[in-house]
Write a structure and sequence with these properties.
The strands form 4 sheets. The protein has a 6-stranded mixed β-sheet, covered by helices on one side. Strands 1, 2, 14, 15 and 18 form a 5-stranded mixed β-sheet that branches. The radius of gyration is 33 Å and the shape is elongated. By secondary structure, the protein is an alpha/beta fold. A hairpin with a 2-residue loop joins strand 8 and strand 9. The protein is built from 14 helices and 18 strands.
Amino acid sequence: MINYILQVILFQVLFLAIYDFFLSKETFFTKNRWYLISTPVLSFILPFIKIPTFQKAVPQEFIINLPEIVLSPDKVIQEVIQETSFYQSINYLDILFWLGVSLFSMLFLVKLYKIANLIRKYEVYKKAGYILVLIPNQTKAFSFFNFIFLGKEIRESQQAQIIEHELVHSKQKHSLDLLFFEFLKIMMWFNPMIFMYQKRITLVHEYISDEVAAKSETKEIYINNLLSNFFQVENIAFVNQFYKQTFIKKRIIMMKKTQSKKMNQLKYLVLIPVLASMLFYTSCSESTTSEVLVKKQIETLFRLKDGKLVGKEGDKETYLDSYIGLESPLNAIEISIDDLSKEEMQEFVEIDAKFKERLNEKSKFSKIWSFKFYKMPNGRNASAMIFNIDKYREKVKTKNDNTTTETEEVSFMSIDKAPTFPGCESGDKDCFSKMVYKHFSREFDADLPNQLGLDAGKKRVFIAFKINKEGNVVDVKARAPHPKIKTEVLKVMNALPKMIPGEDEGKKVDVKYSIPLTLLVE
């Protein structure tokens, strides 16, 4: 969630920078209004957009799923059972967030009450297209939807012009824009960009209304009316105020400015490379903070029949659906193994283990199968077993001719020689697993899970890492029920020694590992 919020704020900073440097001095007021409304919405949507063609192309890697590691404080390390204090289980960030939301909500309601109170207390006149509220002993002038508030102390010679100005706000629904930013301020009160957006769109509203109202008389007279009095203003952020001293100078400068050339509208095209860069960033970056919530459902068994993807219900509930075929499933989107949830990942580990039990990994025919993952048309993720018929024919021909045929691609289901843990025999997977288990038992802080206020029981952690062609442990990732557990797991995994790299067909290769880890919390 924090990563998402940071991306939203970053995108809003970039959008506002474009506005300030390229657009704010132009007289395309209506276009600027829609720019300031649409770009904060875009900043909330962009982090969710992942374009596959923008994602980095990575070489094929081998994946080895290690046996599950179970860390019980009683069995691994002698533990002094401690009761978690109440304050340790409190999420102070959540409390701070909701306190801010409550405070800004109250301020918003107070402002609404002020407006309602003005309508209730003072004279109200229904006019054609608006409602006029006269405030005695004041020179205030502002509008809220179709209510125009006018101070009685404003000279009669200026009142008609002010009402015309405020009618522009009313007809173009400027109050909706300001309310939109008020709601954003409530939900993202900690984001300074929202306040800056609201200030800029308020000024654009004034530019729009000035442009229309100044047509009824010369700009010089209109400007003189703005400067003729030292006016009061109402301290309400979401009303359109005729006299706001901080804006007067900018409004006068903009009214004196000549109309921008149509060619200057090309400046909006600056958005294209910026949006492309944002999409590239969101597509290539991996969100390690979000968790996909999935639940067990009756498994759907997919296959291709007569050129169409068909599915039938299985006899058990699973997190993953399944597919088997000679080619990729139609109308499905291929996803990465990193896109699976913890539950889906654990289920795949079990499927993979059962598959390997049935398949002789030493056989040359093991490499004609490959596992892939897809987002199916029903919205569920599926593990797919793809049978490569061309490789099958090639292997049969090789066997019959007693010749060796090289292929460019190799399935990750097998590897000639797995990476070797220091001190183990070359390619010994069992020894590798035992040494990793010992490393965890020795390095992991087994007291930690019981100090975080977690519910008692089993807590699952998924760990993924890679041993590259140099034997280094890299790309360590973890999904855990608590950030501190994740940090501890990453620390332990990064402390693994340098390995002897794996090999396939005489070449050193990158090998990915996945480890399901179970923590017993008391």
